[in-house]
Description:
It is a single chain. This protein is of the alpha/beta class. The chain has a single domain (34-178), classed as 3-Layer(aba) Sandwich (Rossmann fold). It has two helices and eight strands; from the N terminus they run E-E-E-E-H-E-E-E-E-H. Strand 3 and strand 4 (63-71) form a beta hairpin. The protein is elongated, with a radius of gyration of 21 Å. It comes from Helicobacter didelphidarum. This is ABC-type transport auxiliary lipoprotein component domain-containing protein.
Amino acid sequence: MLLQGCLNVNLKSVLPNQTYYSLDSINIESKCHNTLANLAVNISVLSPFDGKDILIYNSNNEINVLESYKWIDLPKNMIRNAFIKAGLNHCLNIEQNPSVSQRFNTLKINVNELYVKKEEGQYQSHIYLYYELMAYDMSRIKRDFIVMNTRDSNPAIAMQNAMKQALEKIVSSVKMKQQ
C-alpha cells in the first residue's frame, strides 16, 4: 500500500521577546600601581534566586517569573565578576581559585534574597546578603549583612544598581580590614 499526500506543517511559532541583562554593571577604573591585599572570594546564592529568570513578588507575596527579562548568566557568576572588578577599583586583588598553600583571607558572600516588586509604576529591587571575612587560619575578621533596595522603571537596572551599591559597601568594609 502506498500512501501519498501533502503534509503542511507550520513549525513557525511566535516566541516571546527576551531581553538579557547582567547583574554586573561595574566598570574597571583602577588607577592602582600596586594592590593592597590578595583576597579569595566565595559567592553563593540561594537556589530559588540563582537562575536566569528574574523573580517578581506581587502584592500577595506570590512569586512569579518576570516575562521578557532574563539574566545572561547565573547570578552567582555575575556577582563574582562584579566583585572582582569592584575590588580592582579599590586596589584589592581578588583570587577566584587560590591554591591551598596560599594564605589568603577569604570573603564569603551569601545572597539570601534577590528579587523585584512593582510599586507605583516602578520596580523596586530587593537584595539581602550576608558576608563574612575569614583569615587564612579560619578566624573571623568581620561579618555583616546588607539589605539594599533601589528603584527604576526597568527591573534589571534596579537590580544592577542595588547589587553595585551592596558590593561597593562590602569592598569598602573589607578594604578597611585589609590595611
